[in-house]
Amino acid sequence: MEALLIKNGRVLDPASDLDQKLDILVVWGKIKEMAPEIKVDDSFLKERMMVIDATNKIITPGLIDVHVHAREPGEEYKETIRTVSRAAASGGFTTIICAPNTIPPIDNPWRVKRIIERARKKSLVNFFTYACITKGMKGKKVVNVEGIKREGAVGLTDDGFPVRDIKVMKEAAKLAKEFSLPICPHCEEVKGPFLLEAKLIKRYIRSVLRKIPTHFHFFHLSLKESVRLVAEAKREGLPVSAEATPHHFTLSEREKMGEKINPNFLMNPPLRSLEDVAAIREGLRENVIDVIASDHAPHTKKEKNSQHPPLGVIGLETTLGLVLTHLVKSKILSLKEAIRKMTINPAGIFGIEGGRLGIGLPADITIIDPDWEWTVKPNLFESKGRNCPFAGWRLWGKAVMTIVRGEVIMSRMEKIKGRFIPKDLKKS
Ligand code: DOR
Ligand code: ZN
Prior knowledge:
single chain, alpha/beta, eight-stranded mixed sheet, 15 helices
């Protein structure tokens, strides 16, 4: 469609502090106009224009999830670029940044290039990739940072594995600084007892950041002490940011304990105490935690039900509902602050386009129905993963349309035909 006219929505753009009822006109993939009442007279355009009635809907910049495991290459039985992008679109995300712990891992420039080329063909949403900090995520030899930057990686992480050797992290930090890439350490053990998080954050701040002040984005904070350390580093003026996942601000270790442990409550970092959950919420409220990201980590049922289940839970299709219900509705964050942590904050940290609405900018837009009450049914998800700890939860708020570069890639709205209609709508 050459043009879209989105009418009567509440346009919320934290980047420009906009919260107003406006129409938005999109022409050839870009935002052409934002005004209270747009009238299109051009008959050429009118003929090619889709009009969307967004009364009682919230229009935000396309949501960004900076922590997604797409599993391609190597584990396409768990997820593919195509299926993860459908899950993203269904959840209201126009942009994802994917982790490099694939098989083989994305640890050289050529693999960065390959994955981006593949995503260009397969992804419905804007697809970015991390590269590893170290070769094979083994924590020993730093990757070719210059090369991976040249090929388009937007950050460095050995997600899933900590970098224990401070000398290695310092070398990575020097290169990350030189080539302006955020470092996103995974500050936790690979196997229990899962006690490393705060210790490693402290060590990185003390021994790396204070000496080589380069951007550290701390993935998935889960402990009260971690929040305290990041708050302190920020007060000190160090270039740090942090993220939290929906499972860490909604679930505690108590929920995973049934008669037998449900493997869909096992992830890394693990669920913590109620006090930690409260600290994560407080960290979000106080802006110690800048970003909300899903850590979408699909695994098969068979793997999850095995003797040693792999860690991780899916999240692309529940994140927005959990944020709206458990942060906004429960008054921990205002809607604007919640959306900020899923749009302009992540875009700014990773230096990627998007996260804001404005004339002339690419039309990446999410339309949200804040009153849509729904029940989480993992069997209906677009993701191949079913490892969701929120099955049966009642949530308020859902993406009803996802627009990437002016194209409607997902719609739950009436009369928008010929678009990707999510499974849950087909079946309900
Ligand atoms: O729960 C997790 N799953 N944490 C990680 O760090 C890795 C991820 C995965 O790849 O499954
Ligand atoms: Zn992860």
